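F.,

This is the one I mentioned.
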């Protein structure tokens, strides 16, 4: 089968979050099963390419008032996956991917609709796939265009489309005037298509027009059918019926495994845990926490500072939690209010709370390896990858039981000695405190704690099974376009 991926970010070329990790790994896993896979990404200012081969010197992409001529770069084949980059410096030669300190870029609708059209146009020259697999709102217009603007182009008669929602909290919502600007027919601007409170909603369009919708965990696939999780799209999701499927993400253990991690102070494995203490010492030193604290449990967090991730909850819970014997280490960037919250906490408790406001992959590996506990009190979490990574590093997750956190972490049960972490349910400070306190208490029981660490380290979230599940979805989608 020929599959073309379209996404706005992918490791190692661009990354703001877990979407990039998925785009760096899933196509490889599908190619490994003998399929022909290509991936289209925008070329950003920070995208590093090994070669600058031009695949198509200029495509013509029409807008109402102007034409754009992006070029397509051939990024070469890596692990069986062919990479292409849509290159239009005017849109992408900027410091941020989606925005900067001033907020989202004002021309994101133009930027990503151009990207979608460029992928469609390129495929006519480079090979029309059997399936377009598009990701999140930035690529969601592709199935819409295919079934509207391109509906009469017979090249696409037998092409299926699959949309994966990595986060329904980001939808790409723009003023209605965007419709004519992007040459989208007004007939699409109805409540059962792209219209959303008198605005145009890219993700909604993608859900309506793609053959199948997947999301990144089974629980999240249920949650987005409910108004309290779907940010206004629960009806749209519900209407899609059994064509919305949850597939839990895998992990690229080539990147995230303490046995061969190039960023950490010492390597370790479930057979020999001794290196982990060195990683903890290195982490404390990096974060300026005094050595005497090294017998206290270190609670680590790596996160985008966004409301989704539960920082308001942590703030409310911390006034009591700081009295516990624990160290809190945080790595993240994002909303200013949370950056300031952690800075002032560090100022008050310099020997037990430390933060680095940074986006730094090396530090992320150090936090995974050097912490004892990994905290994710998310309000919602489509899948979450960092808690899956943490298990492999013997760093025990404490999570709120939502979305992928519910699906990937198993509550520790002292009677059966099974379980990989600790889960709490209610979204309030009291539940967070009791979940974390439960972990802190078990931490004192060295044999029980070691058992939980080992249970987690032996989990395998390989991409093989998810890749099989996606292939089944592709087959079902293709069956709709015989
Ligand atoms: P989300 O995609 O919602 O941000 P995930 O858990 O799926 O959450 O993925 C987050 C990814 O981004 C992980 O690979 C994590 O290591 C990385 N990450 C998040 N924040 C930072 C940061 N400040 N520095 C380095 N990596 C980060
Ligand atoms: C999104 C979600 C996160 C998920 C990631 C990869 O960014 O917030 O939960 O793990 O996508 O699918």
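My design for it:
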């Amino acid at each position: 089968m020929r599959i073309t991926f379209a996404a706005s970010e992918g490791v190692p070329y661009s990354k703001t979050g877990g979407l990039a990790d998925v785009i760096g790994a899933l196509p490889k896993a599908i190619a490994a099963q003998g399929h022909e896979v290509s991936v289209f990404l925008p070329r950003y200012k920070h995208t590093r390419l090994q070669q600058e081969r031009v695949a198509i010197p200029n495509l013509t992409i029409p807008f109402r008032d102007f034409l754009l001529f992006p070029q397509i770069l051939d990024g070469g084949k890596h692990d069986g996956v062919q990479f292409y980059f849509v290159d239009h410096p005017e849109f992408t030669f900027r410091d941020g991917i989606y925005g900067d300190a001033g907020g989202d870029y004002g021309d994101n609708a133009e930027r990503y609709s151009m990207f979608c059209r460029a992928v469609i146009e390129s495929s006519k020259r480079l090979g029309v796939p059997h399936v377009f697999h598009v990701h999140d709102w930035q690529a969601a217009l592709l199935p819409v265009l295919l079934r509207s603007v391109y509906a009469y182009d017979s090249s696409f008669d037998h092409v299926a489309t699959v949309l994966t929602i990595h986060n329904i909290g980001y939808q790409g919502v723009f003023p209605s005037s965007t419709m004519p600007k992007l040459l989208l027919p007004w007939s699409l601007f109805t409540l059962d298509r792209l219209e959303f409170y008198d605005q145009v909603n890219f993700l909604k369009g993608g859900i309506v027009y793609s053959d199948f919708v997947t999301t990144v965990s089974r629980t999240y696939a249920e949650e987005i059918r409910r108004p309290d999780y779907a940010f206004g799209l629960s009806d749209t999701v519900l209407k899609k019926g059994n064509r919305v499927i949850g597939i839990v993400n895998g992990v690229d253990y080539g990147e995230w495994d303490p046995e061969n991690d190039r960023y950490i102070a010492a390597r370790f494995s479930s057979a020999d845990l001794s290196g982990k203490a060195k990683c903890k010492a290195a982490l404390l030193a990096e974060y300026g926490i005094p050595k005497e604290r090294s017998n206290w449990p270190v609670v680590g967090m790596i996160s985008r500072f966004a409301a989704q991730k539960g920082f308001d909850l942590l703030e409310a819970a911390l006034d009591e939690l700081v009295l516990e014997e624990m160290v809190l280490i945080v790595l993240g960037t994002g909303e200013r209010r949370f950056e300031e919250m952690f800075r002032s906490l560090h100022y008050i408790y310099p020997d037990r709370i430390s933060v680095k406001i940074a986006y730094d992959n090396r530090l992320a590996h150090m936090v995974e390896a050097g912490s004892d506990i990994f905290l994710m009190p998310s309000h919602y979490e489509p899948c979450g990858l960092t808690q899956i990574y943490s298990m492999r590093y013997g760093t025990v997750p404490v999570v709120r039981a939502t979305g992928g956190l519910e699906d990937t972490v198993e509550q520790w049960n002292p009677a059966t000695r099974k379980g990989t972490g600790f889960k709490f349910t209610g979204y309030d400070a009291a539940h967070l405190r009791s979940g974390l306190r439960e972990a802190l208490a078990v931490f004192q029981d060295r044999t029980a704690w070691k058992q939980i660490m080992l249970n987690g380290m032996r989990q395998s979230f390989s991409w093989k099974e998810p890749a099989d599940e996606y292939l089944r979805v592709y087959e079902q989608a293709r069956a709709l376009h015989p």
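The chain is about 35% helix and 20% strand.

Talk soon.
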